[in-house]
């Protein structure tokens, strides 16, 4: 079996995933734009459906890649005398894997989880009102916004207002991206772990891979600074 041909096919599948990831990033940005510009809740919800569709495509490709890899390993292990119907073997494994799918799989997609989490944060800054029977989104009371800004805008490392906030997926605390990455790099050179800089946090192993951009908070900070 020409395994180099199989590697090329796998590479194409993984390349397709990168397009799906880009699509999910764009859908996330559109949803945030809709919330920020006071669009109807229905429009925002439609982006969640788009994200679930992307998550379903991502799962399908992951399952196909898994079926491919398991079949390759099986053939290499068994070394059959006759060349098997590789495509049929892959399809059988793929069907078996797909049969175990559930809706909850899609909601565990990392980009979908990020989307929902950030959308929730965005909506915290806005509230729903009814205007002649139509649902719209309106910015929250300015006093509340100011109070929140005082609590959330300051980086625990620099003690300055954040420009590029990132949130730790493990403990939930937020830092200025450059500041936390500098600490991680410095401690890494000394082969030491990084404790979360937020006072009172018990998390003692902050990794760069655990940090995600907090787009919702960044938009709120930018909005406050424009006022």
TrEMBL record:
SUPFAM superfamilies, per database record: RING/U-box (SSF57850)
Sequence ranges assigned to domain SP-RING-type in this UniProt record: 140-226
GO biological process: double-strand break repair via homologous recombination; protein sumoylation
Pathway: Protein modification; protein sumoylation
InterPro entries xref list: Nse2(Mms21) (IPR026846), Znf_MIZ (IPR004181), Znf_RING/FYVE/PHD (IPR013083)
Keyword Zinc-finger: yes
Record Pfam families: zf-Nse
CC terms in the record's Gene Ontology section: nucleus; Smc5-Smc6 complex
A molecular function GO annotation: SUMO ligase activity
Compartments (UniProt record): Nucleus
Keywords from the named record: Ligase, Metal-binding, Nucleus, Transferase, Ubl conjugation pathway, Zinc, Zinc-finger
Keyword Zinc-finger: yes
Main subcellular localisation: nucleus
Family: Belongs to the NSE2 family.
Protein name listed in UniProt: E3 SUMO-protein ligase NSE2
Gene, per the UniProt record: Nsmce2
